[in-house]
Write a structure and sequence with these properties.
Length: 101
């Protein structure tokens, strides 16, 4: 990778990180659950890509890094669904415990 392409890649990464933070920090609380579901879908795509990378057989380093990516993406997907489920349970009505017999 040349010096210019590395600088360009770091520039794009920094802008994407800043823009992502700005967008996420301005999401109203009512939209957090749908946003988490969309984020889980994106993480699922990352999981598929990391599985392909781990199994491509380009070398030991690629396989190890692909495996680490699979573990991280899997943790992200599972954690996202756990958090989404927990948030959705907050909106369910509690059963009425005052039963009149």
């Amino acid at each position: 990778m040349s010096h210019e392409s590395l600088i360009s890649a770091l520039y794009v990464f920094a802008l994407a990180a800043f823009l992502g933070y700005q967008v996420i920090s301005r999401v109203p609380p009512l939209l957090h659950t749908p946003l988490m579901s969309a984020t889980n879908a994106i993480s699922g795509i990352s999981l598929v890509g990391s599985i392909v990378t781990a199994g491509a057989g380009h070398g030991t380093t690629s396989t190890i890094l692909g495996f680490v990516a699979v573990v991280c993406a899997s943790t992200n997907v599972v954690g996202g669904f756990v958090i989404t489920d927990r948030m959705l349970r907050m909106f369910k009505r509690k059963p009425n415990t005052d039963s009149k017999n």
